[in-house]
Amino acid sequence: MQAVPPPFRLQAFDSLDSTNDEIARQAAQGAPPNLVVTAASQTAGRGRRGRSWVSTPGNLFCSFLLEGRARADEGPQLAFVAAVALQEALSALLPAAAFRCKWPNDLLCQGRKISGMLLEAARPHIILGVGVNVTAAPSPALYPATCLRALGSGATAAEVLAGLCEALAHWHGLWLEQGFAPIRQAWLERATGVGGPVTVRLADGAERPGRFAGLDEGGALLLEEAAGITPILAGDVFFPN
């Protein structure tokens, strides 16, 4: 895989258990931030809530070791930073497609999932794992999926990674300097479903329908119900077909 733009440093592997796990191992040994790890295949890739991530060859599997902000509770905001960066990168590769951010950490096109992200702590840094469906669209349990090839793009995983690194350098730097406010605004401009009906499935399986009223100042989904507006910190989001 080709080199990536600065400030990132690339390590490319043929196979790993998980790119996030490899980054974690290197972080534990004192690796500095801005390391990027990719793998052509993963044997134990995973997504949010411990779900397995299908690692089809030709797709992009990568993880970043990124500098965090001073407060640990700001770390989850990096999911929005990454979503905005990836939306920008994919839009540059396929301008005719409408890539939209989906709370909390997915990217959609035509209502189908094309990417997912996973954040893990490696204090004082943060591990950001990103998977992008480049040449194939696995069939996830929760959401229909698509890939760049199905959308008419001939881009490779290396090209997607290069664009992501360039965009992430900008948006991550902005987050470090100015905090979440500009990221929140950029994400809302690129988001799907804001202002419309939504159902949030919580960790205990309970489903709460309401209106997607936006994001609070920390990135929680604001769910408007009959009794008022509730910030939702974690859950799976479903929109009407």
From TrEMBL:
InterPro entries: aa-tRNA-synth_II/BPL/LPL, Biotin_CoA_COase_ligase, BPL_C, BPL_LPL_catalytic. Pfam families: BPL_C, BPL_LplA_LipB. The keyword Nuclease does not apply. It is an enzyme of class 6 (ligase). Gene3D superfamilies: 2.30.30.100, Bira Bifunctional Protein, Domain 2. One of its GO terms (molecular function) is biotin--[biotin carboxyl-carrier protein] ligase activity. Keywords: Ligase. Its EC number is 6.3.4.15. GO terms for cellular component: cytoplasm. Signal peptide: none annotated. The keyword Ligase applies. Residues 2-176 form the BPL/LPL catalytic domain. This is Bifunctional ligase/repressor BirA. It comes from mine drainage metagenome. The gene is birA_9.
